[in-house]
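Instructor's aside before we start: the two examples that follow are unrelated to each other. I chose them only because their records fit on one page, so don't look for a connection. First example below.
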Amino acid sequence: MVGCQKQLLTGFAMMCCGMLVRSSCRAFLVAFCVTELLRGVDSMRDENRATGIGVGPGRFVKSDLHVHVPVDGVDIPRASTSYSRKEGGIFPAPVIPFSRVTGTDWHGEENNPGGEFGGRIITWDAVYDQSCSRWPKIFDDLKDQGFEFVVLTTHDITPPEDKQQEMIERCRNKNLACYTATELRHERDVLIGSRIQYALRCDSGGAHIGWDPLNGWLKTIQHPNALPSDRLDDEYYTHRANSSGPTVTGQEAGTPSSKDDRTTIEIFADWSAEALDKSGVTPDGELAGVLTSEPPGYTPKDGTAFAVNKWDAALSRGFKIWGVASGDSFAKSGQAVQERRLESLQAEWNASVKANNTKNMETLAEFIRSKPVGAGYIQIWLPEEEELSAWNLMDQVSKGQFYAVGNHHIGTSTVDIVSAQVSTDGTYTVKLASGSHDVTCEAVTNHGRVVTLQQEGADFSASVGAVCGSAGEDPFHCAYFRIQCKRPAVANPRYQYDFNYAWMQPHFLPNYVELERHFSDKPVHEFKAVVRKNKNAMQTIHNAMAKEVMQWEEASELEVMRTQCKSAEKCTAEVLKRAIQNSDQFSLENWDSRLFEVELGIDADVDQV
């Protein structure tokens, strides 16, 4: 549609110019028309390049595409609510834990060979899992952090359209632009028969998807590295570290592909980082993210809060997807994080409980339970002529007109971008705000290969020649490049989240079209190499898939029976299923309702039907 509009604009401008010249109209009108023509032609050069943010009149709008809010009809548990522990005892109120650590009164489990969390998988749970903050706190915190646009998100439950409009109206009354989305968690929808198979899969499209129910454009892979099973296969890093040069196939498990139909990926999601460094335990270096790579010259392997390599893996197989960041705000923090916060407020909490001060207890509970806002977000470029509206801002996101910010240590100095643009010769230049003396930037191309950039004044620039070098045997060793910048957020940083970041969107080179074509018929592996090479694991998967097919067939049969049995008395699903399996000439007209008064499970009785 955008391309069509540009062609129409160009055609109209040419016609306009011709008419103006023939009629000897005033010179400034001719100049205006020629300018519009040139603008139209220039904008058609490359529709897919995310260039020009911070160029010309306009401003950046601080935004977050993943902000959790309450759901009508699903009440936030009272501050005094307590949950049982799996190992015995209870969690102290007001902590709301994750389902898997609660007792059997709050969730169910089944054996799950090879899966996450000790070989067990949750089959049901009743633990609250929506926003842990109420609307007043949500709006106050967003305003305090300077947000102007957010996407209001619910877990699994998509509110009716009128309720979504009510939420948007709430925002409007607070001078905030808002959009709505649902975080769909695929593990909640998997049939029992395929749970084992699902747990062994590496979901390249993301187990959690931020989906836009209003227009269907936004499909964000959310916190993609939170589950070990969904992380980029170690095989990717092994292939990248090949001594004779990278042998990445683009089919390594966990690599997002165009088949997944996603638009954006959270390359930073503070949900994992918060749980690692605020739980009172020294984090595991690999989970927190080491600062060096093997071999040198590549982005380090992603810590759980990051998915930069996953992003580059997708881009490197011809899948254009924009990189975003989020704090997963107002959803519940990990129980260890909540318990630490409770400890810091224990005296005030005890005093409120003793005085039965429910208002203060609820206020404290919001702080203790909720993830804070501002740890990850995006800065959307809004041209001066555009109104600050959700529609215009989402349109800018769809074009990649923004940069992403990782800011785990809220309140520390961020990486502030003044502009990022690509010149006509392909040079990508990022201009930093003043006071950025401790910021470093680098260009990143296929498979996360890094080229360090030198600062010139406030600018960091990367030319095609400097990033790509001479052509090698691999025609796709450099089909795009992007720029990322960071600055220390703490003294003596040890982990990836000890820096604050700014990630610019990629600039696609002419050979990217060939890259897309090359991978169009090459699917990504569903299972990691360690699973594919394990005969027992693959047999388990085969059995689970066979069971899933059988369940699908049974469900289809039951649906047929429900349709045919609407008028039959005492028509039960089990009786009908067994009856229909024993007769090829089964029809409602031949049924006798008395025959359905049999006791279930007695074959002799069922055989009469």
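Example two begins here.
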Amino acid sequence: MIQSIFLLSPTGEVLIERHFRGVTPRSVCDYFWEKASVSLNHHGGLSMTTSSTIAGGGGGGGGSGVGGMIGDKELLGSGGGAGGLFGGGMTGSDPLPLYDTVPPIMEITIDDNDDISGEESGHGTDSANSAGESKSGGNAGVGTRVVYLFSILRDGLTYIAITHGEISPLLILEFLHRVADIFVEYFGSPADESAIKDNFSTVYQLLEETLDNGWPLTTEPNALQAMIRPPTVMGKLQSVVTGGSNAIVSDALPSGTISNMPWRRSGVKHHNNEIYIDIIEEIDAIIDVLGNVISYDVNGSIQVQSNLSGVPDLLLTFKDPNIIDDCSFHPCIRYSRYESEQVLSFVPPDGNFTLMRYRVKPSVISGGFSPPISCTPQLNYSLDGGGLLSGRVDIKVTARSISTLFNMASTSSSTTSTARKGGNVTIEDVALTIPFPKVVKTANLTVNVGYVVYDEASKVARWVIGNLDEKKRPHLTGSMSTSVVGDGSGNDRPEENHLPLSVSWKIPLSSLSGLSVGGLSVTGESYRPYKGVRNIARSGRFQVRFTS
């Protein structure tokens, strides 16, 4: 299974190194960083806080491992993310997304004498291939061995897992996301470089408990928090005074390890018993230069914040469960009952967790998708006085009054309106990520709404608009200079094709599919908890092509 785990800082420094089944030389990290540093951010996605994997098939069942909550989105190099409970969209503090071709899975040949062989070391050809096209380890030369490097990017940190044999790639990628989620639970968001450096001992203890001889063991936060206490100021002072880890590691095993519910600890008590459920749906779409939707795909997740005392048994029903397709579940779900009755029966973990992930059947949006936001980017090139190629960029953004979103605003405690959303709709957390060709030297951009930041190193601009309604008319204009010498033909333009820009947005109390909760009942306890349910529609990988 997993041979070694590395944590790299945004500059490529090895922050954490833990070996489980033999020692992997650090030179694999150097080889990886050489490939990844072509762009400061790899996998073509955003560094977000929570996992962005989507439903990968039926899951469920007991156990505290990764279960069935794995998908194929990370393998495809997609970014985005859940954005946190009741959250959504990107914020101004998120790093800029950069684009390259570094795969999340690489095959590397290690030389036992010179550590690693690759294109640059002179020991052979470049061996970074996708796992699906990789050769078996038996093809390596004498004195060499093949390892597989899995990587994800979260909060600016690169999580790397090394395996010495072929294994299900989605299992490793999902495990790395689980580790990143655990760090967020313990250290807060974002779990970045400073959080890791401030909690070295806790990080190593967590890795010891989550992996047993390289195999995933305990990944449920409730079970881990019973064994390894979250860091506190008093705990850190006690560790400094005593010189040990008694303030971190508990002497007793968590109560869940001897029960059939390892995801929930015993004796949970809350002063206010309440549960909140968010149905978050994301749409991945490609928009052409005329504003037409070329392709789209809708997937969703149900995020839960549970603060319930005792051992409550919950039953969640949907008004139209036939909308759901290709779903995966948290281990607490009784999968057999969902198959027979299309309801979710479960004893929830305490705190925040993802109850299920799903895709929306294409037939649900068979009439096509009409986006709630319109974006018309234009890019024109011309020659300046020195014969160099220069350009003008013009981007207009407007909110549409009519879209295919469903209005999920509650009209009473027992009914919900699912009419099409129309009229004056407020779109929240609107932001654009605009990649420029690598030949661009400088860019001067101005906006009339929000603010824009241009990163010279990555050639990417981020325009944060904020809230958008029909009254606002955000407009970005600017000029850019390049190092390309024009030929005066009148068709001068960089050889590099302009990458599409990405748009992020969020609309509360809206749904892309119309999925709504029919009822939520609590049994097994005498109290009546407060229950809150809401829908959120937002963008996933929402790309708009340039007009030039």
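Confidence is low (pLDDT under 50) at residues 40-100, 117-139, 410-417.
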